[in-house]
Amino acid sequence: MANDKDKHVSDKDKFMKGQRDEDKTFVDGQNREMIEHKEDDKRNPLVWITPIIILLLLIPLVIHLATGNGGVALTGGGEEEESSEESSGGGEEESGGEGGGEEASTGDFDAEGFARDNCASCHGQDFSGGMGPALAGTSLDEGEFTDVVRNGRGSMPSFSQDQIADEDLTALYEFMAGQ
């Protein structure tokens, strides 16, 4: 033990006299050693946050798909694609609207079918609300309902006279009010 004590004293004396080890870096004007980090040791301490954020975003997505809610949107999309094959083509909303116009011209309008093809993807399969507000048992009067369908509101697209005739719009309103 005496040797260790003497060693520290001799090191202290050496540093007090201004002599320093060649392989150590000291803070200027102080008798403290400065710790130098090698390039390999300079890692960002927050690197672990990126995988955690990715996991936190993926977990709700997996739960959403596993519960079947994701399947509803896919099923609705599949139905719209089928209707686009039957009609003259174009985008999904346009083809659904054209299908509604064709039904109106024949005089035989299926309000529930039109609603399932064009409304269910946002307002829910049972029209009780989803991304958009509930349509079942709507509190809107027929004039407001017609105005919203014709001009759109928020992110809802508008439907022209070519896509759904006024008589068919009345039938659609009665279907929604009766839900």
UniProtKB/TrEMBL annotation:
The lineage of its organism: Bacteria, Bacillati, Bacillota, Bacilli, Bacillales. GO terms for molecular function: electron transfer activity; heme binding; metal ion binding. The keyword Chloroplast does not apply. The chain crosses the membrane at residues 46-66. It comes from Salinicoccus sediminis. Residues 78-96 have a biased composition (Acidic residues). Residues 96-179 form the Cytochrome c domain. It holds the Pfam family Cytochrome_CBB3. It comes from the Bacteria. Keywords: Electron transport, Heme, Iron, Membrane, Metal-binding, Transmembrane, Transmembrane helix, Transport. This is Cytochrome c domain-containing protein. PROSITE patterns: CYTC (PS51007). Residues 1-37, 74-112 are annotated as: Disordered.
